Amino acid sequence: MTPAPTPTAPQPTTRRRIIHIDMDAFFASVEQRDRPELRGVPVAVGRAKARGVVAAASYEARTFGVKSAMPSTSAARACPDLVFVAPRFDVYRAVSAQIHEIFLRYTDLIEPLSLDEAYLDVTEACDAGATATDIATEIRAAIRAETELTASAGVSFNKFLAKLASDQDKPDGLTVIRPSRALDFVAALPVGRFHGIGPVTEEKMHGLGIETGADLRNRDITFLLEHFGSSAEHYHAISRGIDDRPVQPHRERKSVGAEETFETDLTDLEPAVHELGNIAQKVETRAREKGVVGRTVTVKVKYVDFEQITRQRTLSTSVRDAPDVSRIAASILGEVHPFEKPIRLLGVSLSSLEDDTVSAAQPSFFDLLDAR
């Protein structure tokens, strides 16, 4: 295979200065901050139960291989001294809001990705004489002083590179990727480090001999289209350090939901419907916090062997109240009963969202008739 010509350093179509801020082990760090006896101890935020899942792990726990989304039982086996702490999402949201206020001192172009990370476009501040590196340094210092937490930052001319940079020197690190350095930086990284390339795609790339950014860059667009379809152009661009996406400060929330993993698998419809009622109450609470209602109700079912299915129904009017959501979800679940296998997890979400200033009318007679 003839290697593709070595490209020149990427030239962004717009001159941006982007910072990606990523809090270090955020949930676990908040718990260690608030409970001094946990400092220096391997901590997992989550439930220490048979079906529990680790929501976050401290760096002390990560040295044992404990990581987020790991089953609690596996985490406890990997680290026998692991301390489980129940999550306090109200506290994490409050600290996240405090950090967001720090961001606003420098720019209002902020794109939150989650409670603990965000992109900031500081181009305007840089045009006024500041440097993105200095701004990132000041933000990290303010976070430490005002929250007693640490953050890592990546600075570059686009979002893809800024996110790669923030992960380069964690925890409590700052990495800058300038245009002259971008190609070499991307070329040396394993493709599994690229945001948007998950384990399945990474394994597929490895099977095609693509291990690093350089390997990916050496595959032409025809090859990538053949093997990766609609994602080919994206992979072709990022392997060259190209990403023209703007920071989007008002990203549309696509859905609001909740789910529950059960200690004992569910095999009958009646107890499953009962659990849907509890989940629907959480959905209502979260939707009210976000000020939204939704017209589409989706039910997620995960069986004991981890096979997962989803079913949804779009209504003529928006809903949010738990009794309505629960009734519709129960009707949807009834469509897959009798269950093929025992159920280990159920989830309910609302999508097709709109602001609740648009009246959340009661479901129509026909919606509720269908849900009986």
From TrEMBL:
InterPro entries reported in the protein's UniProt record: DNA/RNA_pol_sf, DNA_pol_Y-fam_lit_finger_sf, DNA_pol_Y-fam_little_finger, DNA_polymerase-Y, DNApol_IV, PolY_HhH_motif, Rev_trsase/Diguanyl_cyclase, UmuC
Major place of residence: cytoplasm
Active site: 117
Record-annotated site: Substrate discrimination: 27
Alphabetized CDD domains for the sequence: PolY_Pol_IV_kappa
Cofactor binding summary note: Binds 2 magnesium ions per subunit.
Gene Ontology BP annotations: DNA repair; DNA-templated DNA replication; error-prone translesion synthesis; SOS response
Gene Ontology terms, MF aspect: damaged DNA binding; DNA-directed DNA polymerase activity; magnesium ion binding
Protein family (similarity comment): Belongs to the DNA polymerase type-Y family.
Function statement: Poorly processive, error-prone DNA polymerase involved in untargeted mutagenesis. Copies undamaged DNA at stalled replication forks, which arise in vivo from mismatched or misaligned primer ends. These misaligned primers can be extended by PolIV. Exhibits no 3'-5' exonuclease (proofreading) activity. May be involved in translesional synthesis, in conjunction with the beta clamp from PolIII.
Protein name, UniProt field: DNA polymerase IV
